[in-house]
Amino acid sequence: MTDRTAHSAEAAGAPTRTVLLRGGEVHSPADPFATAMVVERGRIAWVGSEGAADAFAQGVDEVVDLGGALVTPAFTDAHVHTTSAGLALTGLDLTGARTLSAALDLVRAYAASRPADRVLLGHGWDASRWPERRAPYRAELDEATGGRPLYLSRVDVHSAVVTTALLALVPGVRPDGDRPLTADDHHAVRRAALAAVTPAQRAEAQRAALDRAASLGIGSVHECGGPEISSPEDFTGLLALAAERPGPRVFGYWADRDLGLARELGAVGAAGDLFVDGALGSHTACLHAPYADAAHTGTGYLDVRAVTEHVAACTEEGLQAGFHAIGDAAITAVVEGVRAAAEKVGLARVRAARHRVEHAEMMTPATIAAFAELGLTASVQPAFDAAWGGEDGMYADRLGAGRARTLNPYAAMLKAGVPLAFGSDAPVTPLDPWGTVRAAAFHRTPEHRISVRAAFTAHTRGGWRALGRDDAGVLVPGAPADYAVWQTGDLVVQAPDDRVARWSTDPRSGTPGLPDLSPGSALPVCLATVVGGREVFVRPQG
């Protein structure tokens, strides 16, 4: 691991102070009733009871009174687009717009507030939630911006609407009337729009995203960059920024079939959003059967042969491979390609590489079994179901209620032994780790629900395991001291059936408790986040 690959105390030199935290609840499998923890040289040195903590009190540099707060491993967000997430925080964010007219009002106000910007950037519109049920027309955007270049990505980032002035900067793009741009046309206008972001704007956005992550108890993120998503300058700039400032660790994935470039950029894998297909909301996820609301099956970008070649090459080079696949046809192509690669280079080597698939939404019993057989990690986003699942959600619009009910089957995946790593795909859905855990535990389709404990593990240790590391994401002696301190209510052991909850003080359970995440309950508030023994966030008092 290099400084360019991940900001970490391991790379930069661990702090030398020894700290005792006591008087709280420490979530650790080493002791389900732990109330204290010692951190030494950036690692967990001891976890145990309040009485035993007395033996350490005189030999440490600092004693922290937790005041009853909960200490957990820091979260890992396994799929983030950091610059785009930051631009949504610092720029034009349409995720809160409830109508088309409200979105246009926001565009108009933003354009007026940014007279010097060469290109206006915005994100987050979702016509499926608007009463008008359509995207903005180009003429409407031209009027709202006063004729300036504007790029507005849909919430899933797989399509966009733009102004006439931006189209003029991208020769060769031929829009189909007012339909949102998808596939190659979308990639072309996105490249042109992001090229207008200055290094200062980019760094500001990256800092904003990482600071937000730290404030939410996120200790590490997996950046999913690539030539169709960002740029080499954006990618290396983020890794350099993260290495030089306190904040979450950043592990960079570069979605490119050029393995030499991925290594040169400091990526941990030629993976992430290497697109096999697009997204359901934009009608670009690749399906076996046509959409319910469109007479086609979406868009495929990579076939079985391309998947096979990439996985085999990465396995031979000792590099993690991975793909973006949402539709059932795209997932089938991934499975068939990985299986063919395993026949070439050996199943054991493919499994050991822990290749990964992002999103993996339209899984079937056959592809679930194949993921388990091939050792594929599913990097998934439970907030997608919370946002678009259910009988009346976007998934049902696109696929029909029957197919929609099969999406994101986390319980079946865990039962089959498929490793899960949770993330947000920010800015597609916001950074919100406890909300993500809740979304998995209270999935809109009850048979897909998993326990809060399993969901929490997927959002902490799961992200580290997806990187090939089994020594982190858990508070046990020897693990990196990446943890968060929380203000929360009573702790429970919460099963997938939300009628079943036991107090964690029941000694028969032997299971450390977690906050009650029942719908409607308040989510925990992050008081502090520590990465490698260094504080990267402390909530202001008052």
Automatic annotation (TrEMBL):
Q: InterPro entries given for it?
A: Amidohydro_3, Metal-dep_hydrolase_composite, Metal_Hydrolase, YtcJ-like
Q: Which residues form a coiled coil?
A: none
**Which positions fall inside the Amidohydrolase domain?**
62-537
Q: Which CDD domains match?
A: YtcJ_like
What name does the UniProt record give this protein?
Amidohydrolase
